[in-house]
Amino acid sequence: MRIEGLYRLVSAVPPMRVGNPSYNVDRMVEIYDSAAERGAAVVLFPELSVTGYTCGDLFEQETLLAAALAGLERLRAATAGRPAVLIAGLPLLKGTRLFNVAAVLQNGRLLAFVGKTYLPNYREFYEKRQFRSIREHDGSPVEVNGEPVPLGNDLLLDAGGVKLGIELCEDLWVVTPPSNNLALQGAQVICNLSAGPELVAKAEYRRELVVGQSGRLSAVYMLAGAGVHESTSDLVFSGHAMIAVNGRLLAENQRFEREGATVTADVKIAWLDGQRRAWTSHNDVPAAPVRTVELAPLPAAPDAAFFALAKHPFVPSDATARTARCQEIFTLQATGLAKRLQHSRAQRLVIGLSGGLDSTLALLVAAWCCDMLELPRTTILGVTMPGMGTTSRTKNNAVAVAGELGAELRIIDIQDAVTGHFHDIGHDPAKLDVVYENSQARERTQILMDLANATGGLVVGTGDLSEIALGWSTFNGDHMSMYCVNCGVPKTLVRYLVEYYASITPSPELARLLLDIHATPVSPELLPGAQHTEELLGNYELHDFFLYYFLKYGESPRGLLALAARAFQ
Q: Which residue of 128, 138, 402, 446 has the lowest C-beta tally within 10 Å?
């Protein structure tokens, strides 16, 4: 199925020659042609890419400025009949002021010039020697080939509902980047034409700026940096290109490529608006007025070849990141439980242990909490309550894990109590229906609540986020607790948390037990014989996939189906 609403973005670093607009434009046209044929919606080039950034005092020569405008005309012609937006940098003379600008071209039209606001003039930079800040401009258009073209730093480019904003290099590095206001006024894609030279560790900081700004703005942030051919006797340029979205790096090139480079990403722009609606404080920030420049609608990506889609979105794919995530989640869960334990002045943590994943995770969190508070692990009262469908594997695992962790354990068989209840309500025990199943869950809850009252404890809930979202919990049964530690943890992540604890425990036997629980099929164990939750409810990988993209981005059911078809092939 086709994934709707994708737009292909390209940040390009062309090979170039300083002071040679004719050569540079040839290379840029080649890249633009190729990107447009591959379905690009926006093609971004570096700062002063038409002339080169390191022209120095050549920027004062009318010959270079005229050649730059001639090159701009060729770029305009290259976009004729094409909806892909081309954004390139060049020097622009307005009266006696020279501005460092980004030109916006589409469908054979020159639509706007966006000027650089903040000109660095420290250490290796001396841009104020040739250029003036666009803040000195009075807001009037500039005439090119007899046509007025908007010029400023307050221009919002609206391409059929997809809104673009532009800033140049240093503008990102200042206290209040122009992109802040552009995003507040609706810009979903910020394009940065850059020409920052390299220093040790500067690329890492630049990356942090780009990713961080995309996160702060809930936006796409594209950056195209000047390439190695800009390098002079005292400065080295790397041609750094990146595309980030909402605090996540989507694409980045290998720096110092002599033949130039492009990075490409497919992005669902509508997701950004969904994020901004949910992030209500985004709309609380006052914004300054902007001028809107109308563009033709952008072409949709012809496929999803450059769309980064996580099959397990709750679980980091990188092993190191996953380990760090698991440690943080355990700490968060244990800290919340510790606060609850202290505030309620409870003496015990009462947990129903089934030998399954969720109750095992709750038990591990309780042990982590006890260690955090320097309490004996006998503070934990684990209760395993075998019923009609309990298997020896899960019961034995529950008993053994509690013993390995040092928790107090009680075994209370509920079969006689449930059978008596069936007699009281006139239910045939041979009828294996929802009454048969849920009576067991409610009996277990009654035992846990009564034991908590008897021991001055609180019942620690075990239900996870996926079960709660799907309604897969018995009302007044496992639905009930005094503090649920797993309610924010999806099922796909529960597995990794149990596996993580197995990797850090000094006890080989506990590690073995946890890995066996990890390998046990998910089951409510409420009926005699094998009973598998996913055969009744569906695959948890899919449930968590749908849950993530529905809640985080507000994706439609049809969109969810298309996303899942791609992720799961």
A: 138
Set 94, 127, 163, 169: catalytic member:
169
Span 6-295: which CATH code? 3.60.110.10
Q: Is 116 a catalytic residue?
A: yes
Instruction: Give yes or no: 259 in active site.
Output: no
The runs of H, that is alpha helices, within 6-163 are 21-37, 62-78
Is the confidence at residue 21, as pLDDT, over 90? Answer: yes
Strand intervals (E) in 235-338 = 241-245, 248-252, 261-268, 291-295
Q: What confidence tens digit (pLDDT) does each residue in 505-545 have?
A: 999 999 999 999 999 988 888 888 778 888 888 899 999 99
Question: Which entry of 47, 127, 437, 467 is annotated as an active-site residue?
Answer: 47
Question: pLDDT by residue (tens digit) across 427-468?
Answer: 999 999 999 999 999 999 999 999 999 999 999 999 999 999
Q: Which of 94, 116, 268, 395 is catalytic?
A: 116
Rounded CA separation 463/22 (Å): 66
Domain boundaries, the chain: 6-295, 319-530, 539-569
Please tell me the predicted confidence (pLDDT) of residue 258.
84
Nearest alpha-carbon partner for 502 in 525, 519, 486, 522 = 519
Given a contact cutoff of 8 angstroms between Cβ atoms, the answer to whether 82 and 338 are in contact is: no
